[in-house]
Every structure is written in structure tokens, then in C-alpha cells.
Write a structure and sequence with these properties.
Distance between the termini of chain A: 28 Å
Number of domains of chain A: 1
Strand content of chain A: 35-45%
Helix content of chain A: 25-40%
Largest interface: A-B, 37 and 37 residues
CATH class of chain A: Alpha Beta
Number of helices of chain A: 4
Structural class of chain A: alpha+beta
CATH topology of chain A: Aminopeptidase
Oligomer: homodimer
Largest sheet of chain A: 7 strands, mixed
Number of strands of chain A: 7
Strand order of the largest sheet of chain A: 1-2-3-4-5-7-6
């Protein structure tokens, strides 16, 4: 049984355990691979409007995501999320659960749509999953991501209108 | 004779005079129309890597723009700019001069490309000008901008590879 709940301060060490390797790898997120824990915490927990944690029945952290307005003021009706699933939790549908949860939360918080600004094109599993969940590729930025192994690769802008 | 030079602290009152009406109008920038002067200064001057001011031979401010990395870390080779021309300085080619200047500065600072994330589709003069200057529309975000007069309108992502 996987549950998704708002981030609590005590969750941070376990959240950092699963997001740090993803940032360090430099294959899917644009944050500097040598980002400090303090800066990561600021970006993942403090800047966003809300952060959530997916746990199994034993309280182990399986994944985490944040939700925030994608623009200030006159663009603030579109939200943005970032999701990370722990390496040990793959194949359990955690990303799907988190993305569906985030759409409900986005709607509840009054957002009309959700936009991903920077989906790395070589992250094919993620691209396919977002498409399956109703997101469309509405933009392609040539060579926008400097992949740690592949060099410059395209990034996609993806978008979905949320259900009222 | 129009000159473009790095922003200096003494420029702020004149810069604010030309950017405030644009933010207040809510037709081209996503910043909240009631943004405070302090927050505007933070976003236009403090957050960006550099800010520039275009002046005429009498020292009157005609326009201003900022330049910054569009993403952190692995996306930091693409820069982002925002430009504003004063209402009294339209039709003098100030936007063109600033955009060309920003491309040179971007190249000089080591950026490979320039991206605009949020060009309001109804700002047709700007869209045409950026296209004339070599930018392509690489994405369209449906209804991403809440225009003060027109309601929800699309926003474009525009992109140009800079010359080395």
C-alpha cells in the first residue's frame, strides 16, 4: 500500500537519499550535479508551494514530488511539478501515482493546467509515461540539456489541461 | 545616437519609470501587475547575471534588458533575456539594438543559445521582431498567459542558437 502525504521536516534525510543520486547523475534534472544538500532542500522543499512524499506501509520513502506555480502573476494559473522515484522503488507505479496525485492537488489548489518545462528527451521512460497520463509535447528546445553522458540533447516542454 | 551600457545603481529610478507601466498593464509580462518596486528591482536587476540600459545622447533611458542563464547547472549554456522599451522611445529600433546587443553579450559570456520562455502570443510586434532577428517559435503553451484585457492567451517559447 503506497500513500502520498505532504512533506514533513522529518522526511528530509530520506528524501535527500533518493533525490541526491538523481541530481548527481546529471541525466534528468538540470540542477548542478554537485548541488549542495542545503540548496537542494531549498529548491525541492522551500521554493515550491507544496512538496509530497510517497511511502510504503513500512514508512520507507519511495518517491517525492513538488508542485509550484510555473510563472508568477499572470501565468500563475499553470502549475509545474518535478517527480523523483527512488532507485529501489522502480516498477511499482510510484511515478504514475505521484503524477495523478499531483494533478488532483493542482486542481484542488486552483491551477488550470500543468506544464513541465524541461523534460530531457533521452529520458524516454518519463516522456512515454507523461504522454500516457495525458501530457502533450508542446515544445522542443534544441540541445537545451547538457547530459552527463550524451552531451547536448533536446528538452521537451510538456503540458496538460487539468480537469476542473 | 543610442548607447547600451551595463546598468548602474543610479539608473534605477529611470529604469523603473519605463518598466513599471509595462508590468502594470499586464499585457506582455507575467509579473503580477501590482508588483512592488522592490520586487521588480530584485527580478530585473539582482537575480539576472547582467542588466543593461539603452540611453540617448542626453542620457534619457530608452530601454532596458536583463540576461541570465535560463536553467541552472546542466541547462546553464542557454541564456534568457527580457527587454522593455519606454513608451516614448518606440519606433527608434531600440528593441532591435538591445536584442542584437544581448546576443553579443550572451556569446561573450559563453552561452550557446538564447531562449524566451514566455512570449505572449498577442504581443505580435514582439513575436515578429524576434522572428526577424532569427528566433524560432519552438513551443506554444495553450492559454498560459492571463492577459489583462483578452483573458487566457497562448504563450510562445522562442529560441535561437548564438553565433560562436
Amino acid at each position: 500500500m503506497i500513500t502520498i502525504a505532504p512533506f514533513e521536516q522529518a522526511d528530509w534525510p530520506l528524501v535527500w537519499d533518493i533525490i541526491a543520486p538523481v541530481f548527481r547523475a546529471g541525466e534528468t534534472y538540470s540542477y548542478a550535479p554537485d548541488i549542495t544538500e542545503a540548496e537542494a532542500r531549498r529548491l525541492w522543499v522551500e521554493v515550491p508551494a507544496a512538496t509530497y512524499v510517497a511511502k510504503d506501509e513500512d514508512g520507507a520513502v519511495l518517491g517525492t514530488y513538488f508542485l509550484k506555480p510555473n510563472q508568477p502573476g499572470l501565468g500563475s494559473h499553470v502549475c509545474n511539478c518535478g517527480y523523483i522515484v527512488g532507485d529501489n522503488a522502480r516498477g511499482k507505479g510510484v511515478a504514475t501515482l505521484m503524477c495523478e496525485h499531483s494533478q488532483q492537488e493542482g486542481t484542488r489548489l486552483g491551477f488550470r493546467a500543468m506544464q513541465f518545462n524541461f523534460v530531457v528527451s533521452t529520458n524516454e521512460g518519463a516522456v512515454r509515461l507523461w504522454q500516457k497520463l495525458g501530457f502533450a509535447i508542446v515544445g522542443t528546445i534544441p540541445g537545451a540539456f547538457r547530459h552527463a553522458k550524451l552531451g547536448f540533447v533536446d528538452a521537451f516542454v510538456m503540458y496538460k489541461l487539468l480537469e476542473a
